[in-house]
Amino acid sequence: MEKADQGLINTFLKNAYQKYGRRYAFTFNVYPYFDPGVHLNPGSTDQCSLDLPRVICWEGSTCLGPNIMAAARRQISRMTGRLDDLFWIGEIGWSSPKASALGTAMAECEQFSSLDTFKTFYNGFLQWNLDVPGSLPGPDHAFYFTLRDALNFGKQEHFGLITSCESLACKIAKPDFRGEICPLASLQQGLSWQAWGFVGLGVLLAVCTGLTCLFVRSPKVQKHFDRPQRIAKRRLVQAAQAPSERLWVGPMGTPHRRERLARSAAMARAARGLLALLVSLTEVMGSERIVSLTEATFAETLRKSQMALVAFVTPWCMACRLLMPELERLEEALAETSVLVAQCDVSREARLAQIYSAWRTPLAPWSGVGIWP
């Protein structure tokens, strides 16, 4: 078949054979069940007993399935020039009950899709020795279709030997057939040392977990952890009994005084750290050596410069904080040239950030005709 609007089958097969050579297996699905050349009995509208035997047989020169395979072998030989290329039958089978996709005249023949016909076709397949009519070699492998009934492109088919996965018996089994019960082989060997090792590890972890729980819940451990709480409660009771006393009243060396001073020192250190962080953040925009641009001064300032390098920064950006010293050194190196080094706070100048895609290109060169893309 070589039709541009449907498929270039010959071209595909030639390319595959040229690439894989003798390793390539020519595979065909053969379905006498769907063959449109099967006819009803002359003068009948629902009988097919005359043409049916050649459709379901496997041995003989007139059997439809083997003849289709022989024709496929001849076409393979015509393409490759050999008779011993790999040839597989990917699917072959029969449907009972009637497949909803059956669109030939056989859809009117009840015998065609009967269970007896299904049984005859499958029994012939089991006895078939892969021979085809004439002196041509038959297929190397043939796969029967199929294990269970299934949908095919949304249409129900009944090619399976069983009806569904829940079926307990074959369609064509005799009513009194009982399958053999195969006992499971008992384990002759114990667990390997790896398995015993994992079991031991699990037991060890369970024991350690239990001992840890017992240790934590023991009175001595509870007493140790409850001590700070008891001390705090005792101090509160003492403070309630003597309301005139305050923690900051008393000699410098009292426990209350030392505790208060320690808390004050910790709070002071935290405050100094927070203040240093805020100062470092604001320093990003605090460089007096680099020109700061706003929406009002942006266009006019850059128009006066032949070349410029604009850094779009934000006060909370750590990368901007690291970049600022480099910009200052760059500004110092370019001080004797006409290149302007400037910065723009995009947290305040949102419109400029949107116009020049500041979030994508935070460092933009200016050439005198506009920001470079």
TrEMBL record:
Cited Gene3D superfamilies: Glutaredoxin (3.40.30.10)
InterPro entries the record matches: GH, Thioredoxin-like_sf, Thioredoxin_domain
Thioredoxin domain span: 290-356
Segment forming the signal sequence: none
Domain of life of the native organism: Eukaryota
Keywords: Membrane, Transmembrane, Transmembrane helix
Regions annotated as coiled coil: none
Pfam families attached to this UniProt entry: Thioredoxin (PF00085)
Residue stretches spanning the membrane: 193-216
Protein's name in the database: Thioredoxin domain-containing protein
Provenance organism: Effrenium voratum
